[in-house]
Specification:
- The chain has 22 helices and 13 strands.
- By secondary structure, the chain is α/β, with parallel strands linked by helices.
- It folds into three domains: about 5-85, Arginyl tRNA synthetase N-terminal domain (Gyrase A, domain 2); about 120-370, HUPs (Rossmann fold, 3-Layer(aba) Sandwich); about 380-550, Isoleucyl-tRNA Synthetase, Domain 1 (Orthogonal Bundle), CATH 1.10.730.10.
- The strands form four sheets. The protein has a four-stranded parallel beta sheet with strand order 5-4-9-10, with helices on both faces. A three-stranded antiparallel beta sheet has the order 1-3-2. The protein has a three-stranded antiparallel beta sheet with strand order 6-7-8.
- Helix 7 crosses helix 10 (about 205-220).
- The structure holds arginine (ARG).
- Arginine binds near residues 118, 121, 123 and 311.
- Arginine binds near residues 121, 123, 160, 329 and 331.
C-alpha cells in the first residue's frame, strides 16, 4: 500500500462512508510546495453535502485524522494537508522490500484469468524490420506485466505466412531467382525479389494478375507453390529465431495465418447461417453500416480468402482453445480499422466473449520522418541494429571496466536493453524516430543508464558487504525521501501500466528511481561506518525495484558493467 492509499483509508473512516475510498483516492493531491505537506485532500466538493464551508470541514477532518504515519495534519484554505512521518514510512517500505524481494509489487488482480496476447507477428519472407520490433517489445512487456499482476498470459506469434504476397514472391522467384542465392542469404535475397517484383509490376500490370493466380494455386494445394512457400517459411523462421533468442523472448504458440486455412470454410458457413454474408460484385462481404464502418471483405471474387477472414478464424480458435477472458492484439495504429471490422463482425455473430477483444495500437517507427516501406526496400534490419548495439556496448564496457569476466553476455544484455528501452520509454501511441545514436547513449534517459545505476548500486552492496537477511530497526534519513516516495509507488505504477497497457510508465519510473538514487549517491556517504547497514538496505531496495522494473520491460540487469 502506498501513502495515498493509506491516507484515503484513514479518510474513509473519518468521513463515515460519505465517499467511497476510490473516490477519495482520486481526489488526493500532491501539494506543489513542500511546506504544504506531502499529501492534500480538497474539501470543496464536500461543502455541498455537509452544508459547511470547506475550511470548516477541513478543520474538523484534521481534528479527527490520526495515524502513526502522520507527523502533522493541518487545515489550510479548505485543504487537509498531511505531513508524513518520514521515518515510519521509510522503515515500512524498506522492510517490505527486504522481505518480499522481487515479489514486491506482485498482485493478484488477474485471479489467474487467461489472456491471449498476439504480438510480434512478423511476415514470412520479409525481413524482421524495426517496425516489428515495436510490437515485439511492447507485447512482451505487457505479457510480463500481466503475469506480475496474476494473469496467465498466452503469447501468440501470429506469423504473416499467408496472403497474396506469396503469389508475388513465387512469380518473382521463378522469373529472377535461383536456389543458391536464396540459400546463401535467404531473407536478403527474398527481399530483393520482393522489391524487384514491385518495381516490375509498376510497368507491367499483368504481373499482379500472375501473382494472384499463384496465390490461388497455393490455396488450392498446388505442389510447386506449396514447396516454395514452405521453403521460404523455414528460412524466415530461422532468422526470426535468432532475433528472439537475442531478445530473450519466447512464445506459447506460433500458429500463423496459414494454420487457419482449413478453418476458413467453417467461419464462412457460420456467417452464412447468421445471414450476414452479402454478395457484392461477385465477392462476399459483411456490411457494417450500423457501426459506421465500411464492409469487410470475406471472400474475393476468385474465391481466395483475406486477412480479415483469417483473423476471424483465429479469434474463434483462440476462444475455443484457451477460454480467454481477454484477447489482446498488439498491432500498429494503421491496422485500427481492420480490428474494428473484425471485432464488429464477431459482435454481429453475437459471441459473448467478443467483448474481451482489445486492439492495443502503437505509433510508427520513422526513418528521417518517413514511414519505412518493405516494398521500396526502405527498411532498417533489426538484427543488424541489435548486433551493432551489442558491439558498441562491448567497446563501451571494455573502456570503463576491463575486468568483467562475462563481457559478451553483459554486452548482449546492455546492447539489447538499449534498443528495447529506447522503444518503451515513449508512450506507445507516439511515432518514434529511429536513431541508432540515441539508442546507444549511456547517459541521459536510456536503458544503459538505468542498468548502470543498478550495477553501481550492486557494487556498493558488495563493497559494504551487505547482509541480505538482516532486519532494520528504523530508517531515519530525510535526504532519501525522494527515493522512499518512489519506492512506495512501485506497485501502483505497475497497476497503472497494466490498466493502460502502457509499459512506458514503468520505463519512466525506473528512470526516476535512477535519477533520485544517483543524486543521493552524490550527496550522502553511503558506506559511512555508523549508518552502513541501514543505508545499504535502501540501496538494496533500489536494486530490487530497478531489476524488477527492467525485467517487466524485458530487459536484464547485469550486476557489473
Ligand atoms: N503480420 C501482420 C503485419 O505484420 C501483423 C499481424 C497482427 N495480428 C493479427 N492478428 N492480425 O502487419
Amino acid at each position: 500500500m502506498n501513502d495515498k492509499e493509506r491516507f484515503s483509508q484513514v479518510l474513509v473512516d473519518c468521513l463515515e462512508g460519505t465517499l467511497q475510498q476510490s473516490d477519495i483516492r482520486t481526489r488526493i493531491e500532491k501539494p506543489k510546495f513542500a511546506h504544504l505537506g506531502d499529501l492534500a485532500f480538497p474539501c470543496y466538493e464536500l461543502s455541498k453535502i455537509f452544508r459547511k464551508s470547506p475550511q470548516t470541514i477541513a478543520e474538523e477532518l484534521a481534528q479527527k485524522l490520526a495515524s502513526p504515519e502522520f507527523e502533522k495534519v493541518e487545515a489550510v484554505n479548505g485543504y487537509v494537508n498531511v505531513f508524513l512521518k518520514k521515518s515510519t514510512v521509510s522503515t515500512m517500505v524498506i522492510r517490505k522490500i527486504l522481505n518480499e524481494k522481487n515479489e514486491y509489487g506482485t498482485s493478484h488482480i488477474g485471479e489467474n484469468q487467461v489472456v491471449t496476447i498476439d504480438f510480434s507477428s512478423p511476415n514470412i519472407a520479409k525481413p524482421f524490420s524495426m517496425g516489428h520490433l515495436r510490437s515485439t517489445v511492447i507485447g512482451n512487456s505487457i505479457a510480463l506485466i500481466l503475469q506480475k499482476c496474476g494473469f496467465q498470459p498466452i503469447r501468440i506469434n501470429y506469423l504473416g505466412d499467408w496472403g497474396t504476397q506469396f503469389g508475388k514472391l513465387i512469380v518473382a522467384y521463378k522469373m529472377w531467382g535461383n536456389e543458391d542465392q536464396v540459400k546463401m542469404q535467404p531473407i536478403k535475397e527474398l527481399l530483393r525479389l520482393y522489391v524487384q517484383f514491385h518495381e516490375a509490376a509498376e510497368l507491367d500490370e499483368s504481373l499482379n494478375e500472375q501473382a494472384r493466380e499463384w496465390f490461388k494455386r497455393l490455396e488450392n494445394g498446388n505442389e510447386e507453390a506449396y514447396f516454395l512457400w514452405s521453403w521460404f517459411k523455414d528460412e524466415s523462421l530461422k532468422e526470426f529465431a535468432r532475433i528472439y533468442e537475442l531478445l530473450g523472448i519466447t512464445f506459447d504458440s506460433y500458429h500463423g495465418e496459414a494454420f487457419y486455412n482449413d478453418q476458413m470454410e467453417a467461419v464462412i458457413q457460420q456467417l452464412k447461417e447468421n445471414c450476414l454474408l452479402v454478395e457484392s460484385d461477385g465477392a462476399k462481404v459483411v456490411t457494417l453500416d450500423e457501426y459506421s464502418l465500411p464492409p469487410t471483405l470475406i471472400k474475393k471474387t476468385n474465391g481466395t480468402t483475406l486477412y480479415a477472414t483469417r483473423d476471424l478464424a483465429a479469434a474463434i480458435y483462440r476462444q475455443k482453445t484457451y477460454h480467454f477472458t481477454k484477447s489482446l492484439y498488439v498491432v500498429g495504429n494503421e491496422q485500427a480499422l481492420h480490428f474494428k471490422q473484425v471485432f464488429a463482425v464477431l459482435n454481429k455473430l453475437a459471441l459473448p466473449w467478443q467483448k474481451g477483444l482489445v486492439h492495443i495500437p502503437f505509433g510508427m517507427m520513422l526513418k528521417d520522418g518517413k514511414k519505412m516501406s518493405t516494398r521500396r526496400g526502405k527498411v532498417v534490419l533489426l538484427e543488424e541494429v541489435l548486433n551493432e548495439a551489442i558491439t558498441h556496448s562491448k567497446a563501451n564496457i571494455a573502456a570503463r571496466n576491463a575486468e568483467i569476466p562475462n563481457v559478451d553476455q553483459v554486452a548482449r544484455q546492455v546492447g539489447t536493453g538499449a534498443v528495447i528501452f529506447h522503444d518503451l520509454k515513449h508512450f506507445r501511441q507516439n511515432d518514434i524516430e529511429f536513431s541508432l545514436e540515441d539508442m546507444l547513449k549511456f547517459e541521459g534517459e536510456t536503458g544503459p543508464y538505468v542498468q548502470y545505476t543498478h550495477a553501481r548500486a550492486c557494487s556498493l552492496l558488495r563493497k559494504g558487504d551487505f547482509q541480505e537477511g538482516v532486519e532494520i530497526a528504523s530508517f531515519n534519513d530525510d535526504s532519501a525521501w525522494e527515493i522512499i516516495t518512489l519506492l512506495t509507488e512501485f506497485p501502483t505504477t505497475i497497476e497503472r501500466s497494466l490498466k493502460e497497457y502502457d509499459p512506458s510508465q514503468i520505463a519512466r519510473y525506473v528512470l526516476d528511481v535512477s535519477k533520485a538514487f544517483n543524486k543521493y549517491y552524490g550527496m550522502v556517504r553511503i558506506l559511512d561506518e555508523e549508518q552502513k547497514q541501514v543505508r545499504l538496505s535502501l540501496v538494496y531496495s533500489v536494486t530490487v525495484v530497478l531489476k524488477e522494473g527492467l525485467r517487466l520491460l524485458g530487459i536484464e540487469a547485469p550486476e557489473r558493467m
